[in-house]
Amino acid sequence: xxxxxxxxxxxKGPVPADAPDPALSSELDQARRRLEGAPAIDVLHWxxxxxGRDVVLxxxxxxxxxxxxxxxxxxxxxVVFLDTGYHFPETLAYMRHVEQRYGLDLEVVVPDIPLDDRxxxxxxxxxxxxxxPLDAVLAGTRAWLTGVKxxxxxxxxxxxxxxxxxxxxxxxxxxxxxxxEDDVEAYVVERDLPRxxxxxxxxxSIGCAPTTRPVAAGEDPRAGxxxxxxxTECGLHL
Length: 238
Ligand code: SF4
Known about the structure:
alpha/beta; 31% helix; single chain
């Protein structure tokens, strides 16, 4: 009688350098199956139970829906705003209003280049003012909470509720990924949330001032971002 030692299957090819370790990958697959379609609060509970204080929430402060959800689970969540230097003064005022309302642990990250170096619309501006500062923030953390929604853009239509971001080497969590614009509006009303001051004059999706315009009633909210340029993303999410 002899024993048979089963050999592990040979890997099918080289493991990409940006892949998560296999245990994390398997855990994320299971969590994703469980949390897909779950209430945003459940996704946030999983995130904070799994990663503790090792979580960063980024907000553009076009609204405060994700902030309002997250502080219900962890009032001390670390919130980061990427200040490109080109935001509307109304966005900065709204950010401070929300900070005070919730007593946020808010970090305003300013890029390390002057305004006239690679100004808005020139190559490298989004990279220098958004992507690189975010990479630096995320380098010291394990989970990244975002307000990405599938309805935002065609490019985001397949976004998952949570996924490994190989480039940034963090677990990216999108608690409201399945929400429609109507869900956002209903939540704002239900929770009586403060609105961005520019909502009142037609601005819906709000980023840097030079590349954001108001939209007409019924127009796609993202039509107001980078109008006429063909650009839909700044590089943070895709
Ligand atoms: S939209 Fe992009 S290119 Fe324009 S200021 Fe903001 S970061 Fe720079």
